[in-house]
Amino acid sequence: MNYLSDDESERVPEAYGERYERLHALKREWDPDNLFQTNQNIKPAN
Fold first, then answer.
1. Are the C-beta atoms of residues 28 and 44 closer than 8 Å to each other?
2. Amino acid 16: pLDDT
3. Per-domain residue ranges for the chain?
4. Which pLDDT score, from 0 to 100, does residue 18 have?
5. How far is 21 from 19, CA to CA, in rounded Å?
6. Residue 38 CB neighbours (<10 A)
7. Cα four-point dihedral sign 20, 26, 30, 33
């Protein structure tokens, strides 16, 4: 994660591996407005 550049956002799920779906759901619950969106962001689930 620390070495991904800003234009590599499509690689975020790959970097988190099997944990990505859980993080995606947590983001929807705890940060639905995407306030914390710096660095390599996990977008909130719809």
1. yes
2. 84
3. 1-46
4. 92
5. 6
6. 6
7. positive
Alpha-carbon Rg for the chain in angstroms: 10
Under 8 Å between Cβ of 9 and 40: yes
- Reading the chain (46 residues) residue by residue, the pLDDT tens digits are 556 666 666 777 888 889 988 988 988 899 888 888 776 677 776 6
The pTM of the whole model exceeds 0.90: no
Amino acid letter, 38: T
Beta strand residue intervals within the chain, DSSP E: none
Q: Which two tokens stand for residue 11?
A: 């690689």
